[in-house]
Amino acid sequence: MTQFTEIPLHYPRSSGEVVSYNTINTRETRNSKVIKQSISLIGKNTNITLYSNQPQVVWFLMRRDVLLLPWLPKQQSFNQSMVDKLTGWPPQKEAYIIWLKPDLYEVTVTPDELSKVTSLKLIYDFPDGDIYFVRAKD
């Protein structure tokens, strides 16, 4: 009789590593309306810069480069110092923001905060996320 032994290859949670695949590769994420609309609107057009509060999710589903929105730790508030740092953002002429809901990590500047320093236009609003068009203010 052959006996099989299960050998755990890697336990990332026990060593404190982040495991995105558990939350990304789900039916709910693959069927996301905001991601489907993003693919339809932007697709593989690499001339368009994408930002997101959860770029790893957007990359996994769209398979294209996605940048993290400006970082703002929870313990910091959006104050004049942040406004000064973000003046002229984004560095590209224009970009799109894919804002996924809920914001699981809460480490980026929110669209509300960005609207204070950029020209931000909501294009699509879905229960699972929003798509914005953003330009630096003149």
Report a brief summary of the structure:
With 138 residues, this protein is an alpha/beta fold. The chain is built from six helices and five strands, in the order H-H-H-E-H-E-H-E-H-E-E.
How is the secondary structure organized here?
Blueprint: H1 21-24, H2 27-30, H3 33-41, E1 49-52, H4 55-62, E2 67-68, H5 80-86, E3 94-100, H6 111-114, E4 118-126, E5 129-136
Parallel strand pairs: 1-2, 1-3
Antiparallel strand pairs: 3-5, 4-5
Report on the structure:
The protein is an alpha/beta fold. It has one domain (30-136). Helices cover 26% and strands 22% of the residues. The protein has a 5-stranded mixed β-sheet with strand order 2-1-3-5-4. Helix 4 links the parallel strand 1 (49-52) and strand 2 (67-68). The protein is globular.
- How much helix, percentage-wise, in residues? 25-40%
Instruction: Please report the distance between the alpha carbons of the first and last residues.
Output: 76 Å
Using DSSP, what is the number of strands? 5
Strand order of the largest sheet: 2-1-3-5-4
Cα gyration radius (Å): 18 Å
Give the amount of beta strand, in percent. 15-25%
- Biggest sheet record: 5 strands, mixed
Multimerization state: single chain
H/E topology pattern:
HHHEHEHEHEE
Give the mean pLDDT.
84
Number of domains: 1
Q: Total number of helical segments?
A: 6
Q: Any low-confidence stretches, pLDDT <50, length ≥5? A: 7-16
- Give the overall shape, derived from the CA principal axes: globular
Overall SS class: alpha/beta
